[in-house]
Fold this sequence. Notes:
- The chain is an alpha/beta fold and 564 residues long.
- The protein folds into 3 domains: 63 residues, no CATH class; 153 residues, Leucine-rich Repeat Variant; 262 residues, Alpha/Beta hydrolase fold, catalytic domain (Rossmann fold, 3-Layer(aba) Sandwich), CATH 3.40.50.
- Helix content is 46%, strand content 9%.
- It contains 28 helices and 9 strands.
- The strands form 2 sheets. The protein has a 7-stranded mixed β-sheet with strand order 1-3-2-4-5-6-9, with helices on both faces. A two-stranded antiparallel ribbon has the order 7-8.
- Helix 10 runs parallel beside helix 13 and helix 15 crosses helix 16.
- The longest helix is centred in the last third of the chain and has 15 residues.
- The chain is globular.
Amino acid sequence: MSLAAYCVVCCRRMGTSTPPPKSSTSWKDINTFSTVDIEDHECDAWLLLKKSRSGDRTARLQAVQAMSEAHHWHDYQYRTIAQACDLRTRIGLARSQESDLRFFLPPPPIPALNDDTSIEEELRHLLASLPQTELDECIQYFTSLALSESSQSLAAQKGGLWCFGGNGLPYAESFGEVPSVTVEMFCLEALVKHSEIPSHCDKIEENGGLQLLQKLYQLHKDCLKVQRHIIRIIGNMALNEHLHSTIVHAGWVSLLAEALKSHHIVEASHAARTLANLDRETVQEKYQDGVYVLHPQCRTSQPIKADVLFIHGLMGAAFKTWRQQDQALTEKVSGDETRYTTCWPKTWLARDCPALRIISVEYDTSLSDWRARCPTERKTIAFRSNELLQKLRAAGVGDRPMVWVSHSMGGLLVKKMLLEASQNPEMSSVIDNTRGIIFYSVPHHGSHLADYSVNVRYLLFPSLEVKELSKDCPALKALQDDFLKFAKDRNFQVLSFVETLPTCIGSMLKLHVVPVDSADLGIGDLIPVDVNHLNICKPKKKDAFLYQRTLQFIREALAKDLEN
């Protein structure tokens, strides 16, 4: 059967066929075909395509879901949808878990670089084209590095001695060693900062940034760090709805759909954030830089009844802080995520409580000024808490019942966010919907590591964040006193865990980072666990006490909400 005949038959079934033309063109041969000549599924693509353009939102969602569940079509049917679907449908298919990647056309060809031009130079030109006035100090810092420094001197800017919180407490680098950092990475870090400003996103798009970033993305297929930075930039640009069309037409949805299916949790989560910001059909919230939904990352028919929020500590991360306790390589390679997971909230908690939206946040911190991501950045706990609270509220936090889960300094941020929300009528829903808080080794009364760092300042030059963890810090004491007064009349539950084992800091020192008395909030249960500071939030396995007690608390705190 010819394509023309196929189209007419499908149009008949859709009820959209037009009268035959009155010209000399003969349609009699086409009209003799019966609708029996092709199987029912042959017309599915056309029927669903029409339905996806319906004025009825429910009909559109049903069409996209049906398309995503189609695994028996011929290649040309997927290609037909890929060529003919609208922006809304394309994004919906990308966010559907079962969608076939054949629904997505390859990105349009990107012009080759001139012989005398490199990617590095193009990135520099893009950065130089962005507004350079009225920038905060951190954006100025990254931009100046990318525009003026050599690769060697850029690498020399990096260094440091300590890691604290989710990524470990080893001696990270010696005085004589510096990481290898390329100019491209510094350009991308600068662009990440610029893309947080809406007017700069417009300039990035106007100056060919979407195509340049795609070129770099394709060039570094084996470098996940580069790809994550690029997707962060696209995710920030997607916060601006007037740029959605250009992002889609530049071919980014195809790349994001593929990234969402990655077995790398971090890569998939970055793609999920960007696609959620593009999907205005089913998502009302906006996920700003550093706010990641671990579950659900795709469109789902599962009603979401509550939120669980994960807040890491100093030098932690939105994903690595919450990994399973490190095990031998032979135990990791089994491929069974119930046995080992790189992010237990996404793997274990999402399966045990599918009606939860699970969010993890990420923010830059430093233990030493030598390791600061931006040396000019001096953010107090109060500043960070306000920044995070605004981001979380934009993500719809406060609209549902919720439980906070925090590690180390992250617990201090949670306390400060709740205090600030209690004083702002526009944030009252955050307080009203808080059902519980879990603290993993939170130094409510200060940390031994902070005291040690201050005492050896000639070596570490402790950052502002570390100084605020000192037992003698007035701000820390005021935060504890104010929170106890606030929590006294509030109807939420509290559960605290605390380490009992010292943490090895390189080969120099074993230190009890948060002692039992400092982890005692003064309300709720306090449970000592025989692990060190790093592993207090990393269960050894799914049936371990740490995870099972955490799961029990979440279920009990949200019991009434999950039943409704």
